[in-house]
Amino acid sequence: MGPGYTVPAGWTVMLVTPATQLNPETFKDPVTFNPWRWQDLDKVTISKNFMPFGGGTRQCAGAEYSKLVLSAFLHTLVTKYSFTKLKREGTAREIPSTKMWTIGLAVVALVVVYYTHLIFKWRSPKIEGVLPPGSMGWPLIGETLQFIIPGKSLDLHPFVKKRMQKYGPIFKTSLVGRPIIVSTDYEMNKYILQHEGTLVELWYLDSFAKFFALEGETRVNAIGTVHKYLRSITLNHFGVESLKASLLPKIEDMLHTNLANWATQGPVDVKQVISVMVFNFTANKIFGYDAENSKEKLSENYTKILNSFISLPLNIPGTSFHKCMKDRENMLKMLKDTLMERLSDPSKRRGDFLDQAIDDMKTEKFLTEDFIPQLMFGILFASFESMSTTLTLTFKFLSENPRVVEELRVEHEAIVKKRENPNSGLTWEEYRSMTFTQMVVNETLRISNIPPGLFRKALKDFQVKGFTVPAGWTVMLVTPATQLNPQTFKDPVTFNPWRWQDLDQVTISKNFMPFGGGTRQCAGAEYSKLVLSTFLHILVTNYSFTKVRGGDVSRTPIISFGDGIHIKFTARA
Ligand code: HEM
């Protein structure tokens, strides 16, 4: 039999064997009781169409016994007795009301027993080994509602904080129908990240799987050729070599142009303008997107996609998720059109990310005309929200901490003063010399915690820290827990870049993982740190700025900015 359909792991398969037993093609008048029909049925037809006791290795072990009981019963019945079925007289009798009550109560009792059983089963999953403490919440929804209640500050989300206090650093829960083990423990997180591809693989919730086609041969969540390629092409265009060789002056130019533009306006909502800036620049580097001359404002489309992305993955007309999937399709279509244009007209080549993917089509079979747009879409997704949120938060921290701005200004004015030509651009050496700026960037990344955690799916049962992680369960590694741990970082939500002076390398590597870890560590980490530092350099040397309004943030659990952050920029004389 050919493969035809895919049966996904974990799905239930219901084999309706009665369908063949009541098939009129094989058993004429199938619901007529006619034992004589068996005289004419051959062995092959019977074995194909008659499976009252199931089949295969799980065939009923009581089949022979049942047949013997039935036959003995018939034997005794017909040799020793005659029998008649009595016709019931009259129509249905009225059921007295006390009887109705009794039946009603019995039904209610059955329903209660059924649901109690269901809740008990849900809350006490049967596994071999010991699960961490914690609650699985209600069947299907689990503890999703508690998880999405916004936390009103940048501190660790209350969902995690409360459970850590109640159950300890490792606990179980259930979110959007998935059983999850949450770890805020450094050693467990490290162990899991080191076993990517053997014990776990990347898995974000079901909406991500649908969104990024995390299934089939080209799924990037599995460790293998496709994942390796994703990393190498990203590092090729956004890694240290590329930053040094060509990207640094382009980043500087782009930041100069945008800041100069914002300074000509009244107060601007930095979340909004930074999102447009980050998107347009990254999209330009990936597929040559020219925002100024493009009819479509892609950054707006992308923001819309992201806003409705965090919703229930119900892909039916009318839902936000459906709208989001449609917008995603349009975006993928536009990316595919760009790819096709380049394929048909080599004069449009620019030596960018897309051109490399086109060249690699000759050697990498998985690089198809459908996969390349998905790859570009994924990189934009990985870079856009994280970068723009981090840069926006920088303004919150700086506007609340003028002493930090003063010290930054001292560092950057000293860099400019040292130059032979004060108008020359920023160099890699200058970037590497920015000691205080690195501390500001670290402190921003430490408190920001853009992803609430890293998600993985267990590929098999395994033991860690005395607990069992069952195959198929999701593991959520809450790296923010160590970054906001008051034992390591005193007053953890206070923005204090100076604290980095006193932290040693071991403490830092154990407690600070804004870009994840292991084989999946962020491929855009160096690029992001360079953009943040260059941004600070241009900002403090050329502009002064004041917060006019806004600045409230919440974790839902990803960061949102309520009313935005409205900043007035002024060029310095
Ligand atoms: C402040 C900005 C950023 C932060 C905080 C951030 C954070 C992260 C984290 C935590 C991961 C690991 C996810 C996991 O293990 O599940 C990751 C992966 C990744 N990031 Fe970033 N990121 C940022 C910017 C960027 C940018 C600008 C790019 C692209 C230019 C990028 C490209 C990627 C890619 C391709 C991966 C997947 C790596 C892999 O699977 O091997 N990121 N990022």
Question: Secondary structure elements and their pairing?
Answer:
Blueprint: H1 18-21, H2 43-49, H3 63-80, H4 97-123, H5 144-148, H6 158-167, E1 170-175, E2 178-183, H7 186-194, E3 200-202, H8 206-211, H9 225-238, H10 240-263, E4 268-269, H11 270-287, H12 298-309, H13 320-344, H14 353-360, H15 371-400, H16 402-418, H17 428-432, H18 435-448, E5 454-458, E6 462-464, E7 467-469, E8 474-477, H19 480-483, H20 505-511, H21 525-542, E9 543-550, E10 554-555, E11 559-560, E12 565-571
Helix pairs in contact: 9-10, 10-21, 11-12, 11-15, 12-13, 13-15, 15-18, 16-18, 16-21
Protoporphyrin IX containing FE binds at residues 202, 230-231, 234, 238, 379, 382-383, 386-387, 390, 450-451, 454, 514-516, 520, 522-524, 527-528.
